[in-house]
Structures are given as structure tokens and as C-alpha cells.
Amino acid sequence: MVGKFKRSYQRGFNMVELLAVMAILGVLAAAVMPLGETLLVARKEHELRAALRVIRSALDEYKRTVGQDVSVAGSGSGYPASLQVLVMGTPDPRTQNKGQLLYFLRTVPRDPFADPKLPPEQTWQLRAYASPAERPEPGADVYDVHSTSKATALDGSLYAQW
User: Fold this and answer.
1) Separation in Å, CA 46 to CA 41, 109, 130
2) Segments making up each domain of the chain, as ranges
3) Burial class, 1, CB count within 10 angstroms (exposed 0-12 / middle 13-18 / buried 19+)
4) What stretches pass through the bilayer (predicted)?
């Protein structure tokens, strides 16, 4: 009679347990997705800050080094005519050897929020020296650069105002 009350245990999960586990995993994945998107945007913001810092430093160095020699600077303001000038090089006004070139950038960094199909130098909104700060417009030289993105940053500011 002892064998009559013996239970048989099966190994594995039943369908309800599997559905409950799948539902929990789905809720966790849905909670993590916005965090992943926020981390991606934060990484792009970091890249944008770094690119702006690099370009603006190169513009300032160009102005300090070449800007005094109007024949080299060209525009009269002392700033380069384009971002490509920073990459292609300009004659060094400090040396007697006029064949010596100064390079201020290896490559033009790209705006991480711009269309990836555009060349890097076209991903930036350029501001000329004669342009007012409230209405940055391109002109005969490059005094400053801004992002072309109309999006809002994580801190609530506009990328175009960075």
C-alpha cells in the first residue's frame, strides 16, 4: 500500500512558468531600452563637445599664429577662409622658408548629429567674423562653428547653441 501514495515528480517547467518568466524578461527589456537610447545620445553629445573643442582650438591657434600676417590669412580678420584650410595647411609666416606649411587639424571632425552621408566639413554651421552672435551666418572666413542639429540636448539646451 505504500506504493499507492507515491508521487511522481517530473523535471522541467510547465507552460505557465515559462510564460511568467517571458513576461518578466519583457518588462525588464522595456525598462532598459530607454536607458540604452539615453546612453547613446549622451555618447553623441560627448563626441559633439569634443569635436567643437578641437575645431575651436584649431581656429584660435590659426588666429594666433597666422592671423597677424594678412597676406597669408587672406580675409583680413585673421581667421581661415574654410575648415579645409586648417587641414590642407598654410604657409608659416614665422619662418624664412616660405615652403614650410602649418597644419592645425589632421582631419575635420564631423558633427555626430548630422547626416552621415555629408562630408565632415559640411556638417557644421559656420559663423563668419562679421556675423553677429545672435544670427550666425557664413561669410568670408570661419570664426566659429555650431552643430546643424535642431534637436534638444539632454540638459534642455539646443545643440545649435553649443
Assistant:
1) 9, 13, 29
2) 36-161
3) exposed
4) none
